[in-house]
DNA sequence: CACGAGACCTGTTCGC
DNA sequence: TGCGAACAGGTCTCGT
């Protein structure tokens, strides 16, 4: 579920507090409960349980789709993958189906990592540099420019859709925002990267920035049974709209499969070749 | 280097 | 109504 805008939205909620729940910074961990061992990528469960009590949350952050819970010593990194979600509630609240990891704070509040499909992972690290090594540029960084994008595209001979999903190229795009960005740019998802002109690269850069910012402004997208209050799903131009009218030209949105991912585009606004 | 298939998981929706 | 297939916001690994 979560792409950059969703993870960033969750990080902001955790940092600032929401719906009566307190901000996480300042919270002191009292104890942990690991309900599904494979959710913990590192370290071993015993070391994890022994290390966290008494540590204090000092801040929240995000790198790519990784959520960073900074501690007075080290940090807890969480990747929500397809179905993960985080919530803050009193530690007296009943454990829910698919809850995988609980952090109980001395204040009586609790952070819960819920993850239906069990793809999500958590790492307790002294230093996250190694985990983040190899990730591509952040789309909201000053280094991400039309010129950089055009030059980077020239070095790859890949279809745009899978390339934009590649986290070592640009970090944070997922299936929704990639389809939306390509539609905004008027570029076919199967176009080859090294055939993109400077003008087209600039449109793609703008499409990526516009789609991600719109997602952030809407507090992310909420679909199906995973709901967090975001509303970007109401603004989808092509994602999940196969057969419906393109908002620009009215043609029927097409769905194809690229790299095993559903891919949505307008055949008129995003011509092949 | 690029690509496709399979794995990891559970749940919902679709088609017959 | 029942039941299997297809599909879902992600990423890793392996074989070609």
Q: What descriptors fit this protein?
A:
alpha+beta, five-stranded mixed sheet, four-stranded antiparallel sheet, DNA-binding
Fold topology:
Elements: H1 4-16, E1 29-34, E2 40-42, H2 45-51, E3 57-63, E4 66-71, E5 75-79, E6 84-90, E7 99-105, E8 109-115, E9 121-125, H3 129-132, H4 146-154, H5 160-165, H6 175-185, H7 198-217, E10 254-258, E11 261-265
Parallel strand pairs: 2-9
Antiparallel strand pairs: 1-7, 3-4, 4-5, 5-9, 6-8, 7-8, 10-11
Helix pairs in contact: 1-7, 4-7, 6-7
The chain binds a DNA duplex (16 and 16 nucleotides) through helix 6.
Oligomerization status of the protein chains: single chain
Using only C-alpha atoms, the radius of gyration works out to 20 Å
Helical percent range?
A: 25-40%
How does the overall form come out from the CA principal axes? elongated
Report the portion of residues in β strands. 15-25%
* Low confidence ranges: none
Instruction: Give the CA-CA distance, first to last residue.
Output: 31 Å
The average pLDDT score comes to 96
Structural class: alpha+beta
The number of distinct helices, counting runs of at least 4 residues, comes to: 7
Lateral strand order in the biggest sheet: 2-9-5-4-3
């Amino acid at each position: 579920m979560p792409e950059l805008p969703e993870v960033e939205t969750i990080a902001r909620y955790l940092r600032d507090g929401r719906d009566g729940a307190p901000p996480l910074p300042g919270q002191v961990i009292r104890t942990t409960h690991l309900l599904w061992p494979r959710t913990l990528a590192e370290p071993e469960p015993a070391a994890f349980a022994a290390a966290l009590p008494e540590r204090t949350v000092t801040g929240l952050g995000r790198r790519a789709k990784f959520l960073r819970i900074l501690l007075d010593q080290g940090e807890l990194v969480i990747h929500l993958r397809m179905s993960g979600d985080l919530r803050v509630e009193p530690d007296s609240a009943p454990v829910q189906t698919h809850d995988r990891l609980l952090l109980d704070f001395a204040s009586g509040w609790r952070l819960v990592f819920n993850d239906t499909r069990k793809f999500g992972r958590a790492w307790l690290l002294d230093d996250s540099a190694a985990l983040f090594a190899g990730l591509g540029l952040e789309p909201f960084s000053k280094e991400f420019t039309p010129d950089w994008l055009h030059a980077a595209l020239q070095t790859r001979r890949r279809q745009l859709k899978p390339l934009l999903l590649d986290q070592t190229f640009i970090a944070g795009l997922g299936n929704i925002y990639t389809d939306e960005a390509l539609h905004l740019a008027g570029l076919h998802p199967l176009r080859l990267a090294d055939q993109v002109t400077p003008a087209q690269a600039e449109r793609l850069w703008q499409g990526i920035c516009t789609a991600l910012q719109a997602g952030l402004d809407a507090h992310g997208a909420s679909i199906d049974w995973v709901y967090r209050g975001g509303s970007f799903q109401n603004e989808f131009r092509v994602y999940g709209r196969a057969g419906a009218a393109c908002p620009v030209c009215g043609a029927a949105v097409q769905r194809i499969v690229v790299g095993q991912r559903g891919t949505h585009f307008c055949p008129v606004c995003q011509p092949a070749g």
